[in-house]
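Checked the freezer inventory, then went back to the computational side. Two predictions to log before the end of the day. The first one is the construct we discussed on Monday; recording sequence and tokens without edits.
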Amino acid sequence: MVYNLDALDFLAQVESESVNLAFLDPPYNIGVFCRMPPDEYLAWCGEWIREIDRVLVPNGAFWVCHKEPETLVDLSRMIAALGRGRVNWVTWDKYNGASAGEQYVMNKTKLHPQGKRSFDQDAEYLIYHADEGEWTAQCDRERGFIFEPLRAYLDGERRRAGFSISEVRDRLGFSGNMPYHWFAVGLIHGKSSQWQLPTQEHYEALRQLFNRDGGEYLKREYDYLRREYESLRYTFNNPGKVSSVWQIPPATNSPHKTPKPERLLRRIIETTSNPGDVVLDPFCGSGTTAVVADRLGRRWLCNDIDERWCNYTRERLRQMQMF
């Protein structure tokens, strides 16, 4: 569905934890669509960042595009503070090193005057954030630690079997603190710890230890735990060796001032969501997110404050469905 609302009013209507991937290409505050004092602009961004955090599922993908790297750093810090760490910083090289004359042909940009004294600013930047399952900065969050069901199962079975974590470590012959990572989160011996799922070999060793006297502990099969673990992790459909510098030409033949090319959205949606997932774009402009999500078998929710771009998006979708 395409909505025609203020972005914050639109997001207020979206159900909590109902979105798998959010792509945001907000006004850049450089005079195109938006011009606010910097502090006011960041405060406004903070409002929609909190709303996106609310509507995303715990392992959802959070993408933001911007032209100003300094601003994007601030936005990235805001998102990370909510427990969704930055996975990637992507540089979108729009002209692949093309000369000014070639750029003019590709996208009708102005030719540079001979007296220019700086490099061409022909890149935009994207940040990709997701919950990587770390306990850090999540203790106070309502949704809690993303792998808590698995951690609680393993630690509960350990407690039922009557072993301390140090006993497990000693009985299995570990010299380090690996067993602590299976059962505990937070601080271990004064250091921050990240939870880890045991390997299948270690899980079988735990089974033998806990059931040494005929007990019935750790009855779940390892394949089940592995599937649960993968379902809780954030989606990343590995495309192979792909640099974080994306050389993708800009969109052409669009009446919108700042359109995003379909190839850019295809890479984002294919890699960080799955068929049937919900993709959200509250600043959808000419509707590229909706068009690409629809082609890739994703459900989608899009919004723009300008009615003409909502109508343009609907027409793009209608034309696509005719062929």
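The second is the one RB wanted added to the comparison set:
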Amino acid sequence: MMIGLISGRLLQFSVFIYTQYLTISGVLRGALGIGQFTLVFQQTMNLASSAEAILSQYSSMSIRIKYIDKFFEFMNMKPLITTNTKDITTIPNEPTPTQIEFVDVSFRYPGTEINILHNFNMKINSGEKIALVGENGAGKSTIIKLILRFYDVTEGKILLNGTDIKNVDLGKWRTSVGALFQDFIKYQFTFKENIVLGNTRNQNNKDLMNEVVEKAGIEECLQNLPNGYQQVVGKMFDGGMDLSGGQWQKLALARAFYRDAPILILDEPTSAIDAKAEYEIFERVQKLQDNKTVIIISHRFSTVRNADRILVLNGGKIIEEGDHQQLLAKDGVYAELFNLQAKGYK
């Protein structure tokens, strides 16, 4: 495409130079008057501008066609992670929510030689509120990706109520998990549609919608929108109202809650939210998620301190484990990180 555009530009320039040569020669020979020369020059410039516009449109269309080709190429890709239909089994109903267990799990990302997790063991009990803390690169987000089966383990296995995750129907498993990642999407749709995308099979549950709006702490924002739930958010479309970073994150949090899945995963869910609003949100989560398993990743200790169990990770291993008070009493890594963060508020 680039060669074609360069050739087109060269041809356009050559034609322009040639026409100017002919007209100037005509003037010098007395075959053309000044007025005729001016007319020919203007028409040549108009022709050149039209040719340039055509080339620009061609370039723009070619770029868009490339995007469309990439889209269909992506849609036609076969997923690497699939359910093994020969060995597919049903997760035992009990306990509910599902118990998750890592057994001697080692994992490295495709194309790399370094294990992010090595002989990693962890059990998340049904209905437990778990927090994963640690420095960047400790393996926290990797654990979440493995639970959601975005990747398969390199060694070992992950058990769901005792059943290997590789033998569980992938679609059914993912419907039982609601997740919010720190790089969430801002949908330029209505306020309601942003929430409903959490579970499109349950679009008109008004009671649940009001509940998740309150739980996510975004009811005040909703009350200030001229069209309420039908207000378009974002500035892409006419009449849309943009939200602040914190409001967008609360809306994404409401979307995750609306999924109403038995397992809820929150990866840095309140990074753009002020400390007071964050505290209120997690107070609601603790009260209203009694029958659900909640897994939280956060660098804010005010977020994780109320978890039933806190796992401190370093180098892909659990180096400390317990609740907030137990870990402070150990005076180890967690206590050091907590005190360093607390010092900033004194």
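For RB: Strands lie at 100-107, 117-124, 129-133, 155-160, 163-164, 177-180, 263-267, 293-297, 309-314, 317-322. The mean pLDDT is 83. Let me know if you want it refolded.
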